[in-house]
Amino acid sequence: MNVVSTAFGAALVAYFAIPPFRRFVDGRITHHFDKLLATHKHELTMLADIERARLQRTVENSRIVVARKHQVYRRLFLQLHAAMGKVTHLFGPGSVPTFNTWDREDLKDYMNEEPRFPGAIRDSVLANWDTDRAFALVQLQRTARDRAVDEAERAFARAWNYFLGNELYLPDAIAQKAHQAFQPLFNTLNLAKNPGAHGDYTGWAKEASDRVTELKNLLRAELRVVDDEPVART
Questions:
Q1: Which domain holds residue 41?
Q2: Which of 167, 169, 147 shows the shortest CA–CA distance to 159?
Q3: Spatial separation of the C-alpha atoms in residues 41 and 52, rounded to whole Å
Q4: Which of 4, 72, 161, 174 measures 20 to 30 Å from 225, CA to CA?
Q5: Is 28 inside a domain boundary?
Q6: What is the rounded distance in angstroms from the CA atom of residue 9 to the CA atom of residue 13?
Q7: Distance between CA 152 and CA 149 in Å, rounded?
Q8: Whether residue 215 sits in one domain with residue 129
Q9: Among 75, 60, 61, which residue's Cα sits nearest to residue 170?
């Protein structure tokens, strides 16, 4: 212990009494401190770069998710709205044309629309149009009805499958409202596919329209779309 004290005391004397020694000690201390500081700054820079990269990935992922959600909202509404139009049009006035005032060219154009009437049906309708109008109308109306139901079923399936495939992007309230909108359309479509069955297609059409309107309002709120119309003063 005395040896250590003696050596420490001698070092202190030399430090204060001999300027070159003092400069040497100060230089060593400064060099060691600068080295530790540089190492610490390097470590902090690396940590900052890692955190910056993580934040950039988080922001980019969030941007991608938000963009995808907005795309899903718009496409879901468009497909559901299109399906509602096809399905609810299966009943009521104008669900199938009357054909009474049509000529042969009108018939050809109508039957050649996609999806086209089967060739045998087209030929039979045209062959009997002037000689057995009643028989031709039965064939025409039955096939037109089948085509309308098929188109409505495909439109419903596209909207439903899109909904199921993208439900993970939908908040619970929007997913529930969309599901509520599909139910009356499903009931209406099922009624159309089963001739002779009974159902309140008028009530289902109103229910579907109300639910789709409510869904639109939820989607607008989620997309933060604001009406340009001024609020009426009371």
A1: 2-51
A2: 167
A3: 16
A4: 161
A5: yes
A6: 6
A7: 5
A8: yes
A9: 75
